[in-house]
Design goal:
about 140 residues; alpha/beta; Rossmann fold; 5 strands
Amino acid sequence: MPQIVDTGILFALADRSDAWHTRVRKHLESSHDVLLAPVTILTEVAYLLRDRASPVAELKFVTAIADGELAVENLHAKDWARTRDLMRTYEWLGFVDATIVAIAERLKVRTLATTDRRHFAAIRPSHVERFILVP
């Protein structure tokens, strides 16, 4: 079963000075799950890497995607409607996080690799009582 990753996880993995870096690295090293990145997080990750780390870090990220080290999940037609509904239900939930939930629901993924405990813990997905948040 895949783990859906959010922006914070991929940024923390690349930035050794990030408070989550060690936890994220250890978790991902011990997991055999496929890492699945919603397409909507890619620009956020790339921007943060270039802005807060370096252009080299951004290029390494793009190379990892090009080399198939990270699976990318596109939005399907029904994900757009579900994203809208989630944003209406949870007024504090932004577009990118809503797409993560919509994709997780469609794929019936229970585990989210995230640094955003506050938001994802408050969401009640349609396919399970709550998400399993790691690391």
